[in-house]
Amino acid sequence: MLASSSRIRAAWTRALLLPLLLAGPGGCLSRQELFPFGPGQGDLELEDGDDLVSPALELSGALRFYDRSDIDSVYVTTNGIIATSEPPAKESHPGLFPPTFGAIGPFLADLDTTDGLGKVYYREDLSPSITQRAAECVHRGFPEISFQPSSAVVVTWESVAPYQGPSRDLDQEGKRNTFQAVLASSDSSSYAIFLYPEDGLQFHTTFSKKENHQVPAVVAFSQGSVGFLWKSNGAFNIFANDRESIENLAKSSNSGQQGVWVFEIGSPATTNGVVPADVILGTEDGAEYDDEDEDYDLVTTRLGLEDVGTTPFSYKALRRGGADTYSVPSVLSPRRAATERPLGPPTERTRSFQLAVETFHQQHPQVIDVDEVEETGVVFSYNTDSRQTCANNRHQCSVHAECRDYATGFCCSCVAGYTGNGRQCVAEGSPQRVNGKVKGRIFVGSSQIPVVFENTDLHSYVVMNHGRSYTAISTIPETVGYSLLPLAPVGGIIGWMFAVEQDGFKNGFSITGGEFTRQAEVTFVGHPGKLVIKQRFSGIDEHGHLTIDTELEGHVPQIPFGSSVHIEPYTELYHYSTSVITSSSTREYTVTEPEREGAAPSRVYTYQWRQTITFQECVHDDSRPALPSTQQLSVDSVFVLYNQEERILRYALSNSIGPVREGSPDALQNPCYIGTHGCDTNAACRPGPRTQFTCECSIGFRGDGRTCYEVEKTRCQHEREHILGAAGAADPQRPIPPGLFVPECDAHGHYAPTQCHGSTGYCWCVDRDGREVEGTRTRPGMTPPCLSTVAPPIHQGPAVPTAVIPLPPGTHLLFAQTGKIERLPLEGNTMRKTEAKAFLHVPAKVIIGLAFDCVDKMVYWTDITEPSIGRASLHGGEPTTIIRQDLGSPEGIAVDHLGRNIFWTDSDLDRIEVAKLDGTQRRVLFETDLVNPRGVVTDSMRGNLYWTDWNRDNPKIETSYMDGTNRRILVQDDLGLPNGLTFDAFSSQLCWVDAGTSRAECLNPSQPSRRKVLEGLQYPFAVTSYGKNLYYTDWKMNSVVALDLAISKETDAFQPHKQTRLYGITTALSQCPQGHNYCSVNNGGCTHLCLATPGSRTCRCPDNTLGVDCIERK
């Protein structure tokens, strides 16, 4: 076997390297020798862009591929793939291999045509000239067979560029690739012809959006996922996936002509793998080469069995040999069936060299024994080598979830008020509906003829806050209907999904999001045979309903017509391992037959039950609390009924999930757990101490919890439904068509402030009406720091006082968290986290910027919902709004405590303004060359102003005098998304945090050098300074983080109780820094605005003053 594999590898390397050693000049394929292409040939043209997919190309005759003979359309992608089914949006750019869709890849890589120079052409051609030429290519590769195609699909990638990622590779500048794929089909077989002209492959690697570095292209075929209820990887073949092999595609061949590669892809011989041609290139001197010669192994790069794990192949293949093992792929050489062509010794011109092809066969799922799971601990795990980020995968999360990046990938988690696994989320306490289909093939009693039913409807209704599920399966034949009554677990899985959760325990939907497969076996004691139940849950459809497919097959004991079945309440232990849940139990049920002669005989029967549930969990978040290894499902009541007239089978169960227990402690008698709470069916029951509880209306409903009424859908929700409906993609199980943008709505139905295109990876900010904010669009891999302009709704409950809660003496950090400002006392540089309290509640606002006036002990803020600028005294009292007119999106704000002025940035109006502390005498300082101004700070003693502009094309930090003169760029190089800015009057240091570079940096404005304080920050937003520390707010951690400037290290973090986004932060100093400027005495002698400059001041008039009583002077 090893010798055979070695010979195969030698043959493959010869095929690639012999032309380099022996072929004479001029033997390569020229571009003129490609199949004719372009608009003049009737070609269709793929839209310019990145990661795009064509509409379906309908075929006149069927394409055969692996074991399929019914492919009637194909899809062409930018990235060097012809797909046999529409690729899902989440697989629009190259990632894990094999993909879930059928793929033919002549040059699978991340390619780009956004500049309009490269083109992708495609057509189906029935003309004799094209089909005859295709036949000649196939005959050269397979000279002993007769093949006459009736049609050919011709796809040409002309002068396409590599996707280069955030940092451009100068070595790839201007390099372009041209290659072609032809799929020729007859009534009985299909072949693929790949053509690589001379100088057609100028680059061999592209930047991977998932791995964030250059990876080689791939030549491969994949059958895609197979199976109805249980999806698994079909067969796939990888022919080249390293740089050397890719480089030699144009110089070598398997068909006798350089640059032309031929593969048999659809026939009886390709059920388990694509068959490559095996004709080696000839040599000028007619030399012959011995198949057994292994010398080439010493000088060539081999792709063999031992190299599978180490080959630099980004598109990693998950190869599962079974449910609990991974098999190492073997290097196979698929041979032809004897019926396809005669097998005989190869001729001298057609040596039997075979490519060292990696072939992987379809695997089938199985039920896992519970004992095996407990022994091994891990049944299977998902590949996590290829790191994916939220930037290009936000669409995989629910619209009611947030996406967070971690060291090894991203995870989704439902926002407050919703429950689920993050990929799928539903409002807590809201009723749920489950719809699906059931098919069965069941032998009843001793009958040798099965009862067969297909396409039978299943409908289930769940009252989530009671844990009750009602399931009905319609049109069940009466010959089997009564005999299925004991199988309450068919509907019981839905009860487990929405079982009432006790503290610290999770029901099935919280764990799986309603996306899982379940296989169960039922063995009836004393009855031969068993029944197998297969169910696949596919998440939430376009109607907001969960979807399920069920298949029943096997034997059940016969229950007489008209009988009733009674099942006592029971408990069942669920064992949890990585991505797998198992359980087994023994159940009893009582069958009471119809009354005869005044008696109704009854008898108790038993069946043994075991099940395996497999699902995909996110393994990247190490901080997520681990599930208990065992949870107990308690089914408090079971009701089963078969209606013979309507032929409907009904199951009703009441469920809760919690710890393993024998009795029911008092703590578990809370009305939320036992269903006596009386909350509205559209409300969640929140357990309190002992038997106390509250009712809270679900998201999308309003009321006191006892009675809830529905709120109308928002504009964002309507737009989303309209777009999906028009595109025929309203079913979430169908991929969103590539190139289609669908807006994201937040948990309350408003437009999410950050919108991203699922196909291109570009992100941008939107306003409350969903309109793009100009200048905010960022390149793939970078998320702009967008601000929500809509305040979250105020929940019913006790009114929150808006008055200021006075601060005790000392220095405090003040930070904004949506509708409130919190205070965090400092003792030296230590945050006294246990003493953190709310300073001000303004629940209808989104507060962004904060600034502090150390003279009057007044805090100032910007609010982007109204929008407005407000202030409040630290000594207490009511807050006041000082500016509410002519504002767009006020964000950063700063106070000149000496000149008694405020300055603010407005990223909507693209300007910087100044006004007196009471909001009067406004004047625009700058309204040109600003795109996304945000942070702003003052150096009051020196009369300088500093601000950031996170313009995604030209981020910068600028400075000027406070009067607007001497404007200049202070920092421009190596910036990403500069957000927060702070100036320390004591050390004269200007520091900033950058969400794009993930760095904190400082400089002295009077000196050119800058210092990188710390790298690797998560997503910093605002920053302030005090003593030796910087304190910044972070969007990903929802925390205030302390950073020691002296040792360049984060030393502490404070996470508020309420986990929502943190915005501005400032230091409320106990006393002002010593110093003065020329405006600090008598307003500098100015009639209106006094604006300090270094060593002087300027008197300015407000914009809204005619000037008769205002004097401007320097």
Automatic annotation (TrEMBL):
Annotated localization: Secreted, Extracellular space, Extracellular matrix, Basement membrane
InterPro entries tied to this protein: 6-blade_b-propeller_TolB-like (IPR011042), Cueball_EGF_LRP_Nidogen (IPR050778), EGF (IPR000742), EGF-type_Asp/Asn_hydroxyl_site (IPR000152), G2_nidogen/fibulin_G2F (IPR006605), GFP (IPR009017), Growth_fac_rcpt_cys_sf (IPR009030), LDLR_classB_rpt (IPR000033)
Protein's recorded name: Nidogen 1
Highest taxon, organism lineage: Eukaryota
Start and end residues of each NIDO domain: 106-268
Annotated source species: Rhinopithecus roxellana
GO molecular function, one term: Wnt-protein binding
Record's GO cellular component terms: basement membrane; plasma membrane
